[in-house]
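Input.
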Amino acid sequence: MGVAQEERLLRSRWRTATMAAGWAFPADWQLAEVDEVCAVMLGAADPGDALVRLGRARAEAGAGLSETLLDLAALHAVLTEGTAMVGADVDALPARMLRMTALGWADVITKQVGSCASEDPLTGLATAAYLRTRLGEVYRELSVPSAVYLLVLLRLDLSQATGWSRVVAMTLLSDAMRTVFDGGETLATIGPGVAAVLTRRDDVLARQISNLRVLAADSLAVDPHVRPTGPADVWIERLPATHAEACTLITALGR
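Output.
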């Protein structure tokens, strides 16, 4: 079998394994960088640079980090087992293979954040800085903000989770938050494993909090890579008297 045929076979097996792992949009999978990675993996050269370029290309094409690393895990499984009928296990990735691809992906996302600093690139939630800005607007608008608004907090104990599990867990929780609070509330990530919702007081809030607890638990149970310590804590915080005190509260809650 010639080199070109070997590269085509590897690409085909890789694609099949990635699709089986749950790649969302098959038409978006093929990139020029995929061919580069196939070529270097079948040769003797160091694959580091090719993996960095693949990570960058995936990010530029709109693939999230979880999707990018799952695709990489499919490649590793194919290279290890020699067949497309394999399971993609991100935890089995060699550290350098994961690191180089993630560095390429993060390089693009970091540049994007520079032009869109109000959004966390991993979760899609607003940043703590944006939440402070939004709180400033609320305090300027209302003489007693706590009579109209409050904060719903969600915290997940990720002290025993790996770096990969942390990313997946917060991504799943952000999806749950957006599902429950879909009426224009401000949803933000304020610290490792901590997110907040600035929402109005109303008659449906108690039901929303209950729904968030249930949906968060269901979301975390879906992915076997997520291993938080216990369920997510969800509670309410009353807004303090001044904007400065509210900012101090956000900082303390995010620790």
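The longest strand covers residues 149-155.
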